[in-house]
Structure formats: structure tokens, C-alpha cells
Backbone:
């Protein structure tokens, strides 16, 4: 029993010594950091401060520039002509081609309103598909709602209906944010490898299906069965 007690004592001493050593390392590291700051002369500290202030000023300037170009809010543009001007002056643009009679466009509106405020680096627009036959044909938009995702004036990607959003009307704003992040049209901080789809998917239970409607026989409602 005495031998066992002795080995426990030894272990305890070793453990205490380990803790002391690691505490000492942390303290030495902190001391070194403090000493480094103490040794910085006033000029160096001033330069460090100026660099930080400059970075802050640039970021504020960029934010103001985005706001002046209509970023930060989800806006409707009146015509196809406006679309080209809006797209030309911003690097990242999300444009929702919608129609008043399509229920799913209202769902999309709700999420885009939130994201426009959060992602000020991107311009969020909506355009009535019925008033934009030229654009719909040129961008080959067949289903409403469709989001055109535009970078540097070029349409890079599309979100067509809710297929990429978990195939449900109850998708979260985070799911749409993830999808826009995949297209690199917003600054996305989450993990692109993990789409935040809800575990329970509902298929059309939260709304009444509308009859299929077409625009010039070409554009279909994603509310209909003919997706």
C-alpha cells in the first residue's frame, strides 16, 4: 500500500510540475509581447495606428460608395434599360425576375430584403418579367422566380425556382445566402460544403397551387407542376 501511495505522490508532483511549467511558458509569452510593445518607439506605434486608421477609412469609403450606388436595400427597377445601367456600375448584382401573380416571388422578396441589408457589397434588384421580354429572352429565363447572379457585368449563374434551395417553400434566408455564396456573388463567411437545408422538407403544403400561366407562351410559373 505504501508503494502505491508513493507512486500517487510522484504522479501528483509530476502533474503539478507540468502545470507550473505550462503556466510559466504562457507568462513568458505574455511578457515577451508586452516587452515588444514597450520597446516600440513612438514612431512605430504611430505608424501602426495610422495603418489601422487608413484601413478603417478605406472600408468606410467603400461602404459609402456602395450606398451611393443603391446597395444596402432591395429595390425594384422600372425598365430593362435601367437594368444595364445598374449592372454596369456594380461588381456584384443579384436581380430577381418576378411576376405579381406568382406566390413564390413574394417568398423570394422576403429573403432578398434581409440579405440586401446584410450584404452591402452586393446590389439586390427586382425586375418585372412581363415588362422585360427582351432580357428574359436574352438571358433565357423560362421559370419565375429566377435570380440572375451577375459579376463584373456578366451573368455567371441562375437560381431557378426553389430547386437549389431544398425544394421547399419554407427554405431559410441562410439557405439562399449559402446559394449566393456558392456563386461568389456575396462575401459568404459560412462553409460552402454544408448547405443549411432544413432537415424536414415540405413540398407545397404551405400554399395553394396556382394555375399555370405563360408570358408570350414562354415563361412558366414555378408555382405550377410544370417546373
Residues:
Amino acid at each position: 500500500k505504501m508503494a502505491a501511495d508513493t507512486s500517487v505522490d510522484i504522479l501528483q508532483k509530476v502533474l503539478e510540475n507540468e502545470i507550473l511549467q505550462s503556466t510559466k511558458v504562457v507568462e513568458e509569452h505574455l511578457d515577451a509581447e508586452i516587452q515588444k510593445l514597450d520597446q516600440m518607439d513612438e514612431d512605430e506605434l504611430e505608424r501602426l495606428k495610422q495603418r489601422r486608421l487608413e484601413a478603417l477609412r478605406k472600408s468606410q469609403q467603400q461602404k459609402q460608395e456602395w450606398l451611393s450606388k443603391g446597395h444596402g436595400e432591395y429595390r425594384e427597377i422600372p425598365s430593362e434599360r435601367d437594368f444595364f445601367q445598374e449592372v454596369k456600375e456594380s461588381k456584384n448584382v443579384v436581380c430577381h425576375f418576378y411576376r405579381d401573380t406568382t406566390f413564390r416571388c413574394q417568398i423570394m422578396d422576403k429573403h432578398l430584403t434581409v440579405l440586401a441589408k446584410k450584404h452591402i457589397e452586393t446590389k439586390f434588384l427586382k425586375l418585372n418579367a412581363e415588362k422585360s421580354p427582351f432580357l428574359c429572352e436574352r438571358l433565357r429565363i423560362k421559370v419565375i422566380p429566377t435570380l440572375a447572379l451577375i459579376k463584373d457585368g456578366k451573368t455567371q449563374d441562375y437560381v431557378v425556382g426553389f430547386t437549389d434551395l431544398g425544394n421547399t417553400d419554407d427554405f431559410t434566408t441562410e439557405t439562399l445566402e449559402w446559394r449566393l455564396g456558392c456563386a461568389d456573388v456575396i462575401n459568404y463567411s459560412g462553409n460552402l460544403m454544408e448547405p443549411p437545408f432544413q432537415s424536414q422538407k415540405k413540398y407545397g403544403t404551405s400554399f395553394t397551387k396556382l394555375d399555370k400561366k405563360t408570358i408570350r407562351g414562354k415563361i412558366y410559373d414555378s408555382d405550377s407542376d410544370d417546373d
